[in-house]
Amino acid sequence: MILKGKKGIISGALDSQSIAWKVAERCVEEGAQIVLTNAPVAMRMGEINSLAEKCQAPVIGADATSLEDLENLFRKSMEHFGGKVDFVLHSIGMSVNVRKGKAYTDLNYEWMQKTFDVSAISFHKMMQTMWKLDAINDWGSIVGLSYIAAQRVFPDYSEMAESKALLESIARSFGYHYGTAKNVRVNTISQSPTMTTAGKGVKGFTEFFSYADKMSPLGNAPAEACADYCLALFSNLTRYVTMQNLFHDGGFSTMGMNPAILE
Ligand SMILES: NC(=O)c1ccc[n+]([C@@H]2O[C@H](COP(=O)([O-])OP(=O)(O)OC[C@H]3O[C@@H](n4cnc5c(N)ncnc54)[C@H](O)[C@@H]3O)[C@@H](O)[C@H]2O)c1
Questions:
Q1: pLDDT, tens digit, 9 for 90 and up, residues 59-85
Q2: What is the pTM of this model?
Q3: What gap in Å lies between CA 232 and CA 239, rounded to an integer?
Q4: Is 80 domain-assigned?
Q5: Would you say the CB of residue 193 lies under 6 angstroms from ligand 1?
């Protein structure tokens, strides 16, 4: 029970494939109390309610780009818990240009702004809202989910590459402020390709998934294993890990070439 007595907020559980879904289940198994949140439009799809029932968790809708919604989320969560939270998962990503099939050399910049707002700036908005409301306990932990396209070129990932670079940078910068003020740590986990709604939205995802699987000595890390890594970061076992982008990818990020690819 590595999270016994801890309280946390989990964003981004859309369906049972979602990484956040597995994180929520594992947090509760390990003794945490949680609040679930997602964009109102995702909540209307209804699947999150079955997770909420299983986890005995309230669902508080919030568009992560809306400061008003975020303030409501943190206020209501603190009311529910009768105190501050100990951990938060940001598991939110969406690219308008990718969704609409726009080429990287023909991006619509309004859509690009929206992509950055949803996928990266929302992480800052979450933390700034928590900061102002003093919503997280000392030695708390905040985790965002990233992808290696922040460092290397994966052409079909398009503007999500810049979104992830921004997300990782926000983790470092806010990590400084939160670390200094409250010993709160902020990290991103750079996860293997994973078969989820967001993942499958990227062109050629199935082929790429199997390429990455072969390239990685341990194979692609599944969502369940990513959930375990999130739990490790929420737990007291990682109190001095902060401002890091942590690869959770079966070794992919360190490989140059794997002979298995040529077979
Ligand atoms: N699937 C992969 O291959 C992969 C790999 C590395 C990192 N990630 C990252 O993991 C995170 C979770 O994605 P996933 O793969 O579980 O897919 P998912 O589609 O299940 O989750 C994405 C979530 O973002 C939510 N969302 C979108 N817009 C929102 C908004 N405005 N406000 C609040 N929530 C909003 C969606 O409702 C959804 O629940 C994302 O940051 C994604 O980029 C995914």
A1: 999 999 999 999 999 999 999 999 999
A2: 0.98
A3: 10
A4: yes
A5: yes
